[in-house]
């Protein structure tokens, strides 16, 4: 068994598991449990609603026999009042029960969503590499509500209809047991259609989930990639993709309607047959004096009331099936394994401040089973030293860095900090020692202040200004009308590439961590500001251990060790002077950059 590549890919196709009714409710129970009292209250409040239906039906017998046949005027006067009174009482209960049920439903969606989000935060980077945003988002927005609403509505419907059905059946039996047999006997014919529909729904719905998640992913790309779409004239292409997916969803919707909605007419037919049978036999029972006309009318009214919920079972059945499948998708996320699960942090060491340094020991790593990226990397960084990683693009430098804060797990070998494998430390204590400036500086929606203080929530204004000063962003921020409280838009769209990079340097600075990782931290800067920011980085690196990935070799000349990583292997290592003297890969890289630079300077 390959423990590292355990499946964390969310199901996309028809391979979704089938869920039985009982298993579904078992899975639902943990969410329902904290609110069971309110749920029971909601159900209790619905009992009178059903019972009053039966009372009204039962009331028809004395009405018929006393008023219509024996012409008792005094009784007739009360009838309208009684009907309105009952309806008022019934309405009050309906209202109260919907408030309670709404509360329970809302609380349950909330707790599903909360649990999903907590889980989402524990997923390692690989989860986000392999799952598209749509299939995650769909679970939040559709599934949480659909599962809770569908299953609660079903419990409620079942129980209210259960109570009203029981009372209505009592009325039936009270009036005539013979007719009751006829009326209920026909219900046997409903079993087969329900089974057929259940199967169809499962298939169609799994396909509609795929359609929906693809569409959500497309919407995401359309907003996030709008610049590329416009600059490359991709509107038509995007629209065609959208149309294909939207049409697909429409077809599925129609199929769902076509393949399931015959259930209602079938239910209708079955109940009509029941009514027809009752009429046929009922007349004979009246004629031979077994039952009174009043009993017959009362029976018929109760029967029609009893059949009404049976007809709605058709629609309810579809939504319950949808809810069960939604719940299944929710559990797929909740049950997915992740090495960041809190439970995995038990019995781990708490990393105090790093003392000795970092060591890679024969590290092998691959993102996917098919391709090995790091093929045995070994090196050491002593505390307080600066190590530089250079080499061809795609060679594995970023990958090496992402193994230190454990964004990914190694295949074999180990990454050691102070002599212990990074896997032996709690994630919190490990990551709190590291400040990273990523190659693509991701910024959050919100203010500049938010983007800095997220790295140190208790930072004072002085610390923030210090960080801004050291990342050479203070002049820029001062010039903004709202200063630190300027909103920079989603992913920092309102900033230039260089400003974004400097803001993410400020974010790393304020963290004040003993280990600093800089992944091409100045790549988006022009020569002039790079020199300035380089000074900031030099301050940042002073007295700390730093791992620097540099695209411009001139910035790492002073590194204690330079590692040349090509295609997943360390091909050379040493100081700048040693490597130049060696006249190998590094010397070649350096000379070519040096020549280009001289050329540039001559051209200017
Ligand atoms: P460098 O930083 O040296 O340019 P990287 O470490 O980013 O190189 O990438 C090394 C190799 O790993 C590349 O061939 C790249 O295609 C692959 N790679 C990087 N990230 C991923 C990922 N998330 N999933 C799969 N392959 C990846
Ligand atoms: Mg890189």
From TrEMBL:
<dbReference type="GO" id="GO:0005524">
    <property type="term" value="F:ATP binding"/>
</dbReference>
<dbReference type="Pfam" id="PF00664">
    <property type="entry name" value="ABC_membrane"/>
</dbReference>
<keyword id="KW-0067">ATP-binding</keyword>
<keyword id="KW-0547">Nucleotide-binding</keyword>
<dbReference type="InterPro" id="IPR036640">
    <property type="entry name" value="ABC1_TM_sf"/>
</dbReference>
<dbReference type="InterPro" id="IPR027417">
    <property type="entry name" value="P-loop_NTPase"/>
</dbReference>
<dbReference type="GO" id="GO:0016887">
    <property type="term" value="F:ATP hydrolysis activity"/>
</dbReference>
<feature type="transmembrane region" description="Helical">
    <location>
        <begin position="80"/>
        <end position="104"/>
    </location>
</feature>
<keyword id="KW-0812">Transmembrane</keyword>
<feature type="domain" description="ABC transmembrane type-1">
    <location>
        <begin position="40"/>
        <end position="322"/>
    </location>
</feature>
<feature type="transmembrane region" description="Helical">
    <location>
        <begin position="180"/>
        <end position="197"/>
    </location>
</feature>
<protein>
    <submittedName>
        <fullName>ABC transporter, ATP-binding protein</fullName>
    </submittedName>
</protein>
<feature type="domain" description="ABC transporter">
    <location>
        <begin position="358"/>
        <end position="592"/>
    </location>
</feature>
<dbReference type="GO" id="GO:0005886">
    <property type="term" value="C:plasma membrane"/>
</dbReference>
<keyword id="KW-0472">Membrane</keyword>
<keyword id="KW-0813">Transport</keyword>
<dbReference type="InterPro" id="IPR011527">
    <property type="entry name" value="ABC1_TM_dom"/>
</dbReference>
<feature type="transmembrane region" description="Helical">
    <location>
        <begin position="35"/>
        <end position="60"/>
    </location>
</feature>
<keyword id="KW-1133">Transmembrane helix</keyword>
<dbReference type="InterPro" id="IPR003593">
    <property type="entry name" value="AAA+_ATPase"/>
</dbReference>
<dbReference type="InterPro" id="IPR039421">
    <property type="entry name" value="Type_1_exporter"/>
</dbReference>
<dbReference type="Pfam" id="PF00005">
    <property type="entry name" value="ABC_tran"/>
</dbReference>
<feature type="transmembrane region" description="Helical">
    <location>
        <begin position="289"/>
        <end position="308"/>
    </location>
</feature>
<dbReference type="GO" id="GO:0015421">
    <property type="term" value="F:ABC-type oligopeptide transporter activity"/>
</dbReference>
<dbReference type="InterPro" id="IPR017871">
    <property type="entry name" value="ABC_transporter-like_CS"/>
</dbReference>
<dbReference type="InterPro" id="IPR003439">
    <property type="entry name" value="ABC_transporter-like_ATP-bd"/>
</dbReference>
